[in-house]
Amino acid sequence: MKQFFVFVRKEFYHVFRDKRTLFILFGMPVVQVLLFGFALTNEVKDSPVIVVDNAKDEASQAIIGKMYASHYFDIEKAPLSHNEILENFRDGKIKAAIIFPANFNADLSHTNKAQIQVITDASDPNTATTVLNYATSVIKSYQEELAQNTRIPYRISTEVRNIFNPQLKSEHNFVPGVMAMVLMLICVMMTAISIVREKEFGTMEILLVSPFKPILVVFAKLFPYLTLSMVNLVTILLMSVFVLGLPIKGSILLLVLLSMLFMVCCLSLGLLISNIAKSQQVAMLISLVGMLMPTMIFSGFMFPIENMPTLLQVISNIVPSKWYYTIVKFVMIKGLGFSSIWKEALILAGMTCVLFFVALKKFKIRLE
Amino acid sequence: MKEIVIQTEKLSKIFGDFHAVDGISFEVYKGEIFGFLGANGAGKTTAMRMLCGLSHPTSGKAMVAGFDVFKQTEKIKKNIGYMSQKFSLYDDLTILENLELFGGIYGMSRKEIREKSQSLIEKLGLENESKKLVGSLPLGWKQKLAFSVSIFHEPKIVFLDEPTGGVDPVTRRQFWDLIYDAAHRGITVFVTTHYMDEAEYCNRISMMVDGRIEALGSPSELKAQFHTDNMDEVFYQLARAAKRSDS
Lengths: 368, 247
Ligand SMILES: Nc1ncnc2c1ncn2[C@@H]1O[C@H](COP(=O)(O)OP(=O)(O)OP(=O)(O)O)[C@@H](O)[C@H]1O
Ligand SMILES: [Mg+2]
Known about the structure:
Chain A has helices at about 1-15, 20-45, 60-70, 80-90, 105-110, 125-150, 175-200, 205-210, 215-245, 250-275, 280-300, 310-315, 320-335, 340-365, and strands spanning about 50-55, 75, 95-100, 115-120, 155-165. Chain A is an alpha/beta fold. Chain A starts with a helix and ends with a helix. Chain A has 14 helices and five strands. Chain B has helices at about 45-50, 75-80, 95-105, 110-125, 140-150, 170-185, 195-200, 220-225, 230-240, and strands at about 5-15, 20-30, 35-40, 60-65, 65-70, 80-85, 155-160, 190-195, 205-210, 210-215. In chain B, strands 6-7-8-3-9-10 form a six-stranded mixed beta sheet, sandwiched between helices. Chain B has a four-stranded antiparallel beta sheet with strand order 2-1-4-5, covered by helices on one side. Classes of the chains: A alpha/beta, B alpha/beta. The interface between A and B is medium-sized, with 22 and 29 residues. The complex binds adenosine-5'-triphosphate and magnesium ion.
């Protein structure tokens, strides 16, 4: 065990003494989150939203008051007709419209049910989702207030219309995408390079003639990169919550556990690459072209998979990032629990097991 | 009776249909400096790697430090040191960190590592460099350091693959002083080299040609056998017959 820690410490020295590695490790996640994220959030923050209050009653006024109070959107009240609203959308003057029906309060107090219509410009899916989430949360909090005064539950529903892109197809959930990309890159590339470097420099031979067990070499290599990837995961999540204002809706524990699974999967891929690659450059190239590109193309992060030719859709299934991306999206963005993602988790776990054992076996063979 | 520490019998390594090492048989005795000579591509590194447990022999037999290279590589590894043909310390670690790492890997205690590092650094005169990165040292020092690391854990046998490649004659001389020092402490030295003057420093040498051992004996025995007064000539006579040569 002491041997193991001596070795792990050495790995950390390698990382912290190499400026290039340090940059990739800690600079890249930050740069990527900012790059993918900032433009989008700024846009959301200042998005013009119109509120059409056809009811002008107690309930509608209360909800609108709450919306004003949060200063998140640029809200303006305007008594527009349906056609005028659509015109505003077409001219790009507004990103969303919230419409209260004429008899809002009356419906609510007589039938305990009322409906608010939310129309969003879904050509910018990020804003559309944010506006909707936001409106829903305001309405929910109002509902809860009402519920305190009475025992009969009130139900205010939102009728959503996403114009221009009804199914929010190209939903740019970039944070899950960035997570998949960064973890993939760090785990695969760093592991592969660090092992190939030892082969190139001849230090691997020295390790192999020592009584240090090859399996320990593997674990001692994986351990530091797993740790560093965890640091990255936390960085990305913190940035996503505090800088981009994208909350983690589901269980953090579930998210972290499944992220670790994905990391082990990527580490195994890195090990496998280190078996094939003869030089650090080749290792880097295989990692970038063979791993990062599929992540970008097939995870659904940049291009919606549903729109791809069938063959590519089939191929996308063997890309681990696709499953991880889906998991993160469901847990983090949609707030779903394990019961909704067990299938994806199981597939990812299966892939990880296979890759890990193949990698271990190959690593041993190489010593012969 | 001399104690045998390495013994091989028709040891071979075949890559595809290429006989890199072609049935070599020899013995190495405890405490001797055994020179393993041969032209480029003769199969020296390949043979050494088999003896170290890095490469699985195709056929034949070999015992190293009393253990079988086929079945007991783990035990062999505990009893040998190895310095590969490539320089093989970590450039981005300091001298002390390298010593700590390799000492640690061989299971030495922290106290033992500290004490031995101290005396080693004094012996090599590297007091001012001990906290410098190894990458910043001149090649000669790196080589001496790499050798010292390979015997840091006091192995029974040390394998040196062209340890003095590319260093100047003065440094080579110092390097051989270190080798003698180790041999005096009872460490058996198995060394490959291209330099014929170094062959003279060995107790016994073997001459490898195209994967086979063509001559074996002390430098004076070999010179007598080939009717000459220098090793260069012995080597030349043997190497002339070689088919496999990079040069
Ligand atoms: N893994 C391998 N696969 C195929 N051929 C190999 C392999 N390793 C070595 N060889 C070949 O075996 C022969 C002997 O190589 P080896 O490295 O043992 O020679 P050497 O005596 O150490 O030479 P040098 O003085 O150049 O170090 C060479 O022709 C080499 O090309
Ligand atoms: Mg060689």
